[in-house]
Every structure is written in structure tokens, then in C-alpha cells.
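From the pipeline queue, job 12 of 40. The input is one protein chain; the requested action is below.

Action: predict structure.
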Amino acid sequence: MARTLFVLLLSLVISLHSLAATRLKEKLAQLKDIASIETINSEFAEKYILSVKQPLSHKDTSKGAFMQRVVVCHAGFDRPTVIITEGYGGGYALNSGYRDELSRLLNTNIVFVEHRFFQKSTPDTINWTYLTAENSAFDLHHVRTLFKDIYPQKWISSGISKGGQTTMIYRAFFPDDVDISVPYVAPLCCGVEDGRHEAFLRKVGTRAERRQIKNFQLEALKRKEALLPMMEEVCASKGLKFRIPLTEVFDYCVLEYSFAFWQWGTSFASIPKATDSDSTVFAHLADIAGPEYFSEEQSTTPFFVQAARELGYYGYDIRPFSKYMSIRTTEGYLSRIMLPRSALSVTFDDALYHKIYSFLKENDPRMIFIYGETDPWSAVHAPVFKGKVNEQVFFQPRGSHRTRISSMPERMRQKIVAQLNAWLEEN
């Protein structure tokens, strides 16, 4: 009798689960501008890949459209929803084990939006005119509007790095679309070569750590004649092409080294000694700041267009190394080296910086910013204004660009999670 009852209950649970799945898929199928729905495996009850039709220009829909990839992970119609404002391609979200930190902490649904002009969300014809922060914000708004009736509970926007920038952009353009925003390691640059990153690198960490990094950079430059053939071999094997001579590429790799070292929290124990072999020195340099970054036409090319147009970027301090370098200045390097030839006319406009800055200054949105203390991108962190009740900025001590809520000191982590839960529980 007990066994029969158990089987009946199990059958009921399975039936209810199947009914809920059918209901969700039916709801998705009824949404406007959804071109396709694909079911994929996941730890969630249900997970789908959607193709959403988006205008190339939200201001002039006659300019055409493209299909944007959106991934939906379903936890429950009664659960909050995190909209992931991805800044790049979203292929990793297709993995069966994918779940962002906030969804895991708060048991939420996920609506993951791949950024326009990346991976599957790339128009058939590339016209960089339509790759703007404003259009990306309208993309997110359109997706949010589509899902408002399916997921009526509270919404959180979140993204990491450039995705965190996109979180800020989305909130500034559509402040009422979401209840909470959590940008991770999100920069807010005011220029195409902002200037604050170089100053940050001159003070970050301890004096001994900065000296160790600089000594390695100098050692690599002094060995340039021996290391260049190794770089040439690597570039040839990978089919890398550059707009500048390889000797200049080498110099840029050395300049990039200190930024990348701190950004990713590299171990100081990994830095080669002056007595180590040329191959050891080159292998470490290539691992931390390889030549791929400065090659033409790569997967991050759309980002460089955005950086040159309105997101901003960082520069290099060449002065400590000028004696050993073949380049005399790095000014304008982004356009000169890394922009696609079809975007060389792009010029920087700081209107986006001022829009986000003014929004944060004049309002007090429920936003929690997460940064790593030694991450060079924290040099251009979100502004902290006195008197704010909701907006909060947290720095993980010695944290890098990999900083997350779970990596924060326990007391800080508990404070963040408690605040998020309190906001979600409010009517």
C-alpha cells in the first residue's frame, strides 16, 4: 500500500513538472519577436535558447533587424529573475552547469542576453554605426518587456566586466526596468585613454611587488633580441597578423604585462628570475600578456569599437621603459592597432560617461557594485557619493578582476547577501 502511494505521488510530481514545462514553453512560443526555441539540458528545471528579433536601430526600425541570442533558465514563475547583461558573446551560458552567482545565491530565474554584434547575435552585414550603448540598452529593455508577464516577480540586472558596464548603461537608460542592479568589476571610463589606470599601477600593491613586476618587464626588454624569434614562431603558428612591426608588438606586450598581471591576480611566485632561461622568460610573458591581444580581427574586435566610441579604455606609461623600446609613444594605440579598418573613423564621445555619472549622482538606485582592490579596472570604479542609502560599493581586499560576492571576506559577503534578500522581500 505504501509503495503504491509513493508511486502515485511520484507520478503526480512528474506530471506537474511536465505541465509546468509545457506551460513555460507555450508562454515562450506566444511571445512577440521570438523566432526559435531550443530546449537544452541544465541543472534548472528547464532551459531554452531563444532567437529574439531586434532592430538594428531602435530609433529607426526601417534600418533592418538581427537575431539576438537569449538563454532562459527557469527556476519558477514565483521566483525573482536575474537578467544577465552580457557584454560579449554568450556561448558559455549554453553549458549544462551554467548558473550565475546571484541566481545560485537567491534561487532566481535567469534571462541571459548576449550582446549585439557578438557570436550568434551578429547581424548578417556589419555596420558599426548600430553598435552603440543606447541600442544595447534598448535590446535589454525589449527582452525585459517580452518577459514581464511570464516572470512578474522582482528583477535584478547583473553583468561582469564589460557586462557590468552594460548593467550600468541599462540602468541609466531604463531606471525602472529592474528593482536591483549588481555590476561586477565594472569600469566607468571618461576617455579613450582614461589616464587613471596608469596612476593606479604606480601605487597598487606594495613597493616590493611593483619593483618585481617592473624588473621583469625590463628583463624582457633587455632580452628582446633573443625573445623576438620565439614570438615570431608563436605568431606564425597561430596565423596572427598585425598592423605594426613585431618588434613593436613585443613592446606593447611588455607594457600590457603589468595591467594584465594585476587584473587576473597572478601569483608573484610565477615571475621568472633574472637567472632563468630565455624560454622561461618568454613563456611567462606570453602567458600573461601574449601577442594575440594586439592582432587584427579577433573575437573582441566589437568591444574595441565600443571602447573607441564611448566606453573608453586605458593607456600605457612608457617612460620607465623608453630606453629599451622601439616605439616612442602609445597615444592613439587603440585606433592605430586594434580597430577594424572599417571602423577607423570612429571617434570618442564622453556623453555616455556623463549620462551614467549624472544618473548615479542625482539618484539613489538599489545598486551593489563589486570590485577587486588590486584590479586596475577599479581605478575607474563607480563614483561613491555621500548620503546614498541604496547605492553601495564594495572592494575585496587584494581582489582581482575575478572578484565575486563569494570571494569577499565573510562579514562583507553576509552584508551583501542580507541586503539583496531584504530588497527582494520588500513589497
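Job complete. The CA atoms of residues 42 and 95 lie 8 Å apart.
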